[in-house]
Amino acid sequence: MTDDGRTEYGGEEQHAQHAREDRQRDRTQRERGPEPPPRSAPEPDSPPRSGPEPEPESTPEPEPRPEPVGRTLAVPDLSLVVLVGATGSGKSTFAARHFRPTEVLSSDFCRGLVSDDENDQSASGDAFEVLHFIAAKRLAAGRLTVVDATNVQSEARAQLVRLAREHDVLPVAIVLDVPEQVCAARNAARADRAGLPRRVIQRHQRELRRSLRHLEREGFRKVHVLRGPEEVESAEVVTERRFNDLRHRTGPFDIIGDIHGCRSELETLLGRLGYALVRDGHGRAVDAVHPEGRTAVFVGDLVDRGPDSPGVLRLVMGMVGAGHALCVPGNHENKLGRYLKGRKVQPTHGLAETVEQLEKEDPAFRTEVGEFIRGLVSHYVLDGGSLVVCHAGLPEKYHGRTSGRVRSFALYGDTTGETDEFGLPVRYPWAEDYRGRAAVVYGHTPTPRASWLNNTLCLDTGCVFGGAMTALRWPERELVDVPAERVWYEPAKPLATKAPGGADGRPLDLNDVAGRRIVETRYMGRLAVREENAAAALEVMSRFAIDPRLLPYLPPTMAPCATSAEDGYLEHPAEAFAGYRADGVREVVCEEKHMGSRAVVLVCRDETVAEAFPHCPEGSGGTPTGVPKGVQGALYTRTGRPFFDDPETTGRILRRIRDCVEEAGLWAELETDWLLLDAELMPWSLKATGLLRKQYAAVGAASGAAFPGVLGALEAAAARGVEVSALLARQRDRAVDAAAFTQAYRRYCWRVGAEPAQAAGLPDRDGAGLPDADAAEVPGTTHAPAPDTGNAASGQASASAPDAGEAPQKGRTGVPDGIRLAPFQILAVRGRSLAGLPHTDQLALIDRIVAAEAVVTAREDGAAADGTPQRPGLLAATRRIIVDTEDESSVAAGTAWWLRLTADGGEGMVVKPVQALIRQGDGRLVQPGVKCRGREYLRIIYGPEYTRPENLARLRIRHLGHKRSLALREYALGLEALDRLADGEPLWRVHEAVFAVLALESEPVDPRL
């Protein structure tokens, strides 16, 4: 079997035209869909043909020499096998014996599909359209396909060879040359073929005889001819692995970029990688062995331009021959190979230097070099299919395929057909569009640094031009390089500032998110996103979201606990504890639920880290992701929108958190230079001003205006002796409920940018009726009761909402006064997702960050005599209590804690399993958390009078199934995004899951849940 036909191309000019035609073909096929083969008049058991029946040839052509009986027929594991033989030759029996039923496409069966009669020759045209369509789908999916038809006509075979070429697989012909008498007897024994004219078999035999000598010329890469029933019966079909299929080789590997004759740098790099060089009697390196059994993989361009191409070849050939290395060809090896075969080539681009160096070697070595180059395979698929190594890059549709087109792309990459000002071909940015699962590691195009782009990596860092020689350790994904000893060859143009497509290319594409999507997750399998929901998410992402390169995660929604039957309550801790107990979760943590807006915070150690987030190769310099300079991280809402329009405000908050993380020592402890935090930003009014003014404040203002007059009139009527006591009592109750409603939402609103004295807790007396500025501040002690959140100034509470739209005023510390941030989880750090860390450990890390702020604030703002800072800080701790769901006393303590928390004005609590990522006995995920909201807080959600018995009875009929399903799906997608981020997957893969979370938010669900 050959590697892809060993098709050779003269250079990049010929390949450019080939690539343009390929792209045009792909575009046309996407627009028009699969093109059916041409139809013509039907013929028995063969593709339709037209024209008169050909006459027998006067002088038959010589036939191939008979092959021995009982031989093995080798068939590539991915190929199009075409059975050729007259009707009755036994093709269907042969196919059933040697191939799976799903691998065989029978023309008879397809004829039956379209006409309900396998012998209806008038349906042959439609039948072969169906057969070719199914064959194309199987080949596109990488499946071995066998065509069971007569295929004795060259036109029929030409369509199949063309189909194989379109899908870059090898066409294989298996000919069943059985005597006419045997075919006639077999057809006579079949009831549905008994009346078949003898002339049909004779015609098939004549066409078969004419075809035998020309099958390889038609394009078949393997031709097996079986003569007579005995040879057909005794033959054995064996599938063989393609030369480029090394999925069973799992490494570990050291993939080395372009060398170009720089032998000394190669030896140095191998030494850094841990290889021990083996030298011959002349001191020349002829092999290199790694003590841990690692395998080197060379991406080609071993020769030309550099000082010692023969030395590089001698070392690489020795390593490959000893099984210590693999090598794929580069375009320079391809050109050298043609020269060594005597072809006429231009001695340009360094070939003249290589030829001069080889002339000093003995002829045996030059012969060995030629054989080595001829034996190189265009690309390798390694490590279970997760790694592809080639010279110039390879789209996913070509991975593991074998054709001249694949070899051409692997050697030259893709070009636009244009040349730049230096006369060099302009590269088509194929890596920008790459969306494959396998990592593609390649070289060919010099770049000053190696950087990942869409799961592709160019390792050509221009050693021969004075750059460096770079290697990738796999699966560690660690880059190792050595600098060039000197500039060995002056480049035609300066090293490119980016790999093909560039690190600053378009990492995201509309096709990644548009339409109906299926996202594979590790926690809930395949999750679907509806097309209409994707459209809604696209609107938000494209118009309102922050820079997508700083948006690696969106938090999931959270389901409430089961509806309570307790008198006066819609939600109660008893249901939360009982639900987890039923799921087999014994230990839960109850966390205070801060009333604010959900926030995700990306905190980077410095601006350089933010500019390169999430991947910052050591010593890379620049901004690999193209994030603008000066950005320090991100602070955004649960829909990806920035919290503050003013970048300075965001920057001050991020700097404060960064300093606290530094003071807590977490940068070093977690071995990271960035943190991704899940948090709550307060006050609620900071982002909910519009909702407060239009919905809640309007209700409060209306009740404040209406009830005093109503009560006054009713009280006057009662004083006159009118019987209105029942109505008066009801209206008084409604007035109390309305006042409670107003007070409920006002607890979570305060003015941002107040004077320092107000920020310290004094009431605001500007007439707005605002609560204390520190209403949401909580101490860091565990199990402590919530502090009094403070009421408004004495007197009738105003229903007006705060004016949170004013620009925040800066305190002396630089952080806007009145803003509080309560982080409660560290989601991820560089190279790791921390979503599986127990919540108690998470909160312990958060406590250290919060506690460190006192030191940071004192250092920045000065301290009082007792050493405490003069103003409240930015960060707020999250109080919690651990509950054993199987211990009644522990459950009672948790319930009492919640009652105290909500009685003091707290929103409620979130109940989570202490251990994250809990699964039920059947493998399904347990809810990661349920919210249990307080009685007064729910007044905001369900209205002022929701606690009345008749209203509670109605509200208790609420359906939580959809909300719980939505919460779990978004949770699984969030985990998937974090895992992909930690694994270093390309941004489009991370955003696939992030975008799906936002899309699911468009699903219709009761917003009160």
Automatic annotation (TrEMBL):
<feature type="domain" description="Polynucleotide kinase-phosphatase ligase">
    <location>
        <begin position="817"/>
        <end position="1004"/>
    </location>
</feature>
<feature type="region of interest" description="Disordered">
    <location>
        <begin position="1"/>
        <end position="71"/>
    </location>
</feature>
<dbReference type="Pfam" id="PF13671">
    <property type="entry name" value="AAA_33"/>
</dbReference>
<protein>
    <submittedName>
        <fullName>Polynucleotide kinase-phosphatase</fullName>
    </submittedName>
</protein>
<feature type="compositionally biased region" description="Pro residues">
    <location>
        <begin position="35"/>
        <end position="53"/>
    </location>
</feature>
<feature type="compositionally biased region" description="Basic and acidic residues">
    <location>
        <begin position="1"/>
        <end position="34"/>
    </location>
</feature>
<dbReference type="Pfam" id="PF16542">
    <property type="entry name" value="PNKP_ligase"/>
</dbReference>
<dbReference type="InterPro" id="IPR024028">
    <property type="entry name" value="PNKP_bac"/>
</dbReference>
<dbReference type="GO" id="GO:0016301">
    <property type="term" value="F:kinase activity"/>
</dbReference>
<keyword id="KW-0808">Transferase</keyword>
<dbReference type="Pfam" id="PF00149">
    <property type="entry name" value="Metallophos"/>
</dbReference>
<feature type="domain" description="Calcineurin-like phosphoesterase">
    <location>
        <begin position="252"/>
        <end position="448"/>
    </location>
</feature>
<dbReference type="InterPro" id="IPR032380">
    <property type="entry name" value="PNKP_ligase_dom"/>
</dbReference>
<dbReference type="InterPro" id="IPR050126">
    <property type="entry name" value="Ap4A_hydrolase"/>
</dbReference>
<feature type="compositionally biased region" description="Low complexity">
    <location>
        <begin position="790"/>
        <end position="805"/>
    </location>
</feature>
<keyword id="KW-0418">Kinase</keyword>
<feature type="domain" description="Polynucleotide kinase-phosphatase ligase">
    <location>
        <begin position="536"/>
        <end position="752"/>
    </location>
</feature>
<dbReference type="InterPro" id="IPR027417">
    <property type="entry name" value="P-loop_NTPase"/>
</dbReference>
<feature type="region of interest" description="Disordered">
    <location>
        <begin position="760"/>
        <end position="816"/>
    </location>
</feature>
<dbReference type="InterPro" id="IPR029052">
    <property type="entry name" value="Metallo-depent_PP-like"/>
</dbReference>
<dbReference type="InterPro" id="IPR004843">
    <property type="entry name" value="Calcineurin-like_PHP"/>
</dbReference>
<dbReference type="InterPro" id="IPR041780">
    <property type="entry name" value="MPP_PrpE-like"/>
</dbReference>
